[in-house]
Amino acid sequence: VIGQAYKVAFYLSGNPDGGLGQKMATVAATGYAPGSFIYTVGGANSHTNMLWERFSYTFRAAATTTQLSFTSATPTAFGPALDNVSISAVPEPAMWATMIAGMALVGAAARRRRRNMAVAA
After folding, report:
1. pLDDT digits (tens, 9 = 90+) for 29-40
2. Phi, psi at residue 96, to the nearest 5°?
């Protein structure tokens, strides 16, 4: 949806074959500024235990279709590893206000019903 904010959640690790150090990934969405994310490979990283770390990137859709890209910014063949990418819409403040008001009305109706049942008994 044009103008809607979206959150991209993903996990990064680093290829343990490339040694210790920082692995950088860039995430970009069409029409929006890219974000850079750094994962530091430590001595405990291995192929069986990648020690994944969760990151997120938020963008606002500029068109009805958006291309999302992940790029390694590490200048070797042993860059970052990517897994478990998900995208979700970010609720706007007006939507939160409407949802909170709705919950308050449901609570008030339940309280009124309970009071009316107590008076009838």
Report:
1. 999 999 999 999
2. -65, -45
